[in-house]
């Protein structure tokens, strides 16, 4: 790209000029005599924060050849500015040329004089470099790139050195005058002027700053957003934010600036100015040239506006017009080459704009059209394209394209694939591949090929006109170093293909070979050898032996000339393989790789190592074991088979030794050459232990295409996996030692070698091996002859201490020494449970020496189960050694599964009970801090304990504790200690705990909480007792969370007596609140009393949230009432006839109102007469108690175990006795189940 003016190649973005931050006179450098505007400026040390502000604005300055921000995307477009620094004396470039003096005008022509002034860069201005017939020059582009900004940002310091008002006023006045002059000056050229006021003090340090800034804005007419801005003392990050925000505010104005220039150029396109009368029409720019000029201008301004679609359209029109314009230009005119530059750069601009729009296919198509257009133009003008000048230009275009693609992101031009694919449905199946944009590596490769053609044409004599565009004269072309240029192109191409992550390796190999050939022809043999080596790898891998043989022939000569003996030995060794015929007919034997004259000065012998992975090795090797598996202490055979495939011309090869290396505990096996040994196809070796290796002798002489097998025997002393890993073949010559390493693990297996060879009746016979990988052997433990049995029945229980008996019986034919260990973990292996053998403190026990006729050994393993249910696995390991072979361990394992579960399941029923004592009077003060009397409520907690295996488990004792009470005192009443149980063996244990709950908190609480904990002491009925335990275990049940309602009113039902003649029911309405409550009590004639939810497991949670009902008659409760309660008034007691129920007749009011005082209760009695029944369980009628104030129906709870509850339906039953009694004839169990 360096051959083209930088203004033609760079991307055009709006120009922003910064003034006031620098001291150097950059304005002079920005005039039209230089394209360099990026020289570092000198920061003004007197201006506050100048360096930080300058850096913040210059950090993201744009306008390079490729701008990533210009790529089309869905994101919001970012403001793009090219930022330059100018000094305070900066002036805009002249709009019109200076008028000519009268003398100069008269000297130009004697005809009519033209006094109309034009731009200094116009073809109509005599001082213009393109006067009088040029289209456009780089100076016009440089004008808008470096000299004429769209936005001028001036930085000015606000005076804050003193607080003198007069000084401030004078300073502000001078600043206002300067700003108004600059505003007027830039407004005449439509340039946006922005002033940035910088202060050394903040608003807090100088209170009048706001007023002064407002006055400046008012006096200058500059707005606050983009006209006059203010920067107080700020950090660099804040300054960066300010710079970005100011650019974003000014960007639309900058686009409008170039939009107006575009409209002006479009307007002038059809109004060509009159040329000077002193020039003939053939000497001035033609109308077609003027059209090209203004189309080009419009395209440039569209590019400044980042309107790529419009820029492509206008550049395209200029390109087509310029092609027509060439028909009017003579080839010897200086304007010919100028127009060619414009044509190339316009094509480059169109191509780049398409890349910005993510259209790589269109970019490649533009490039192809340009190449075809110039080819037609050159052929039409100069008669041929087969000239060095045309190939020089063509190579230059590919170089420029490659340099551009190096800058383009991976999303547009990826390096890892040859080109960007297209949808065949869009472009059609016949879309030519030449229209696909390839990455930069291909473009450099094309440039190299074209330079080779240029080199071939450089010596040809051309007749007629000669194309001098972008090339050297013929005499200089002959002496030009074409090879260096080709080499640079090829190296650039190789580096690009090398970034393709191993996908385009064939192209890498091809280019590496081409580079090697150039170095080889230039006698740079060391460099040639480097690239030969790079090319060999792929051809060797792909098995392209024809090309590889050709390369190796040159590589041998290059290694000799470069004096690289290591590479020389490697290449000559590879050259011996018959796979490389016929290229290696001149190959020599190993002894002739290095002549005696090339020996080292001190006479030392050097070692050279060649890996089979880096060469085409003529030695193939394979190792195989006879069987895939073997047990410890057994012996197995193994065979090493080597096939030598050297060409016949080098004769026999004789290794000095062959070493077999193994993975595992086998020592390396070294086979040394013995000339006197008998040479046969299969040689059985007698290995000798030489310390670190095992050695043997054999005949190692191999003829061309000869195969030999060496058989060894090995025994193994431990469990492991063994495999033949590598074979190291050594050739010891007079001047050097060559070692050839063959990696058996990575080399491709040869099916003809992976067999077992034997000689039968003098003939070689091969047997196929069944193993998938014959070179690998698995050494297994010797099979144990031992029995381990365990007598574990049923599950274990949490926190249980058990003894697990284990029996060991030896079945070996000789004495053995045994140790036994046990490890207990959960199934997941995340938890280990510690245990010990009885009589020891360890999990490992020595069983001593056992003879074949010994009795079985029985040992107990003591173990405490974890405190949570899980599945345990006990692994018992017995390790023993034969006394005849004590170095080999034989192992037997036995696995015992132990499920650990809960021994008992407990369910609870929490039911309210009637407190027998009188509640304290609400009219007596018991506590100065609390006006509420201590109210006690009684509860009954019934526990039903069911065992998993009730037949084999028994409970000896229990412990029940109440803790963590909040706001209440909970008293556990003493009762019988024994747990009750039914007569059947499968019956559950039951027990009822009575709790008195008294509120004792000064703060009124609606609910109280407590924790209940039940612990059971239990054992198995057949538990084994030892010296450390009595067989009992403690099972701690999970904590039971109890909730006691304290203030909720409740209705309790009790049964005082029952007989076939009369059932006496008593209802208690309790009011523990501090309010007087009024209830409406209604007898439901058609409904039985029913609990609408099961009590079990839920009563303790929902005691007062449901709505059961009952039936009573109204009465008193003497033990609970005081004088304030009394009986119901006579006016409310109304005589009622007998009411009839399906099972009972009863007497009393059907509906009545009941008033209950605070902290008191009311007793309601009802007598029921059974109908048509003499005995048995009958449903209790329902009673509805409704709170008239809170609109809530109270639940009625049976408060006596004389009732039976059907937990499925919620029905409540009472037993009708055959004879009058105060006790039930049949009393159900507490918390009984279904009827």
UniProtKB/TrEMBL annotation:
<feature type="region of interest" description="Disordered">
    <location>
        <begin position="1102"/>
        <end position="1137"/>
    </location>
</feature>
<feature type="domain" description="Gryzun putative trafficking through Golgi">
    <location>
        <begin position="1142"/>
        <end position="1214"/>
    </location>
</feature>
<dbReference type="InterPro" id="IPR012880">
    <property type="entry name" value="Gryzun"/>
</dbReference>
<protein>
    <submittedName>
        <fullName>Gryzun, putative trafficking through golgi-domain-containing protein</fullName>
    </submittedName>
</protein>
<feature type="domain" description="Gryzun putative trafficking through Golgi">
    <location>
        <begin position="610"/>
        <end position="1089"/>
    </location>
</feature>
<dbReference type="Pfam" id="PF07919">
    <property type="entry name" value="Gryzun"/>
</dbReference>
<feature type="compositionally biased region" description="Low complexity">
    <location>
        <begin position="98"/>
        <end position="123"/>
    </location>
</feature>
<feature type="region of interest" description="Disordered">
    <location>
        <begin position="95"/>
        <end position="123"/>
    </location>
</feature>
<dbReference type="InterPro" id="IPR021773">
    <property type="entry name" value="TPC11"/>
</dbReference>
<feature type="domain" description="Trafficking protein particle complex subunit 11">
    <location>
        <begin position="335"/>
        <end position="578"/>
    </location>
</feature>
<dbReference type="Pfam" id="PF11817">
    <property type="entry name" value="Foie-gras_1"/>
</dbReference>
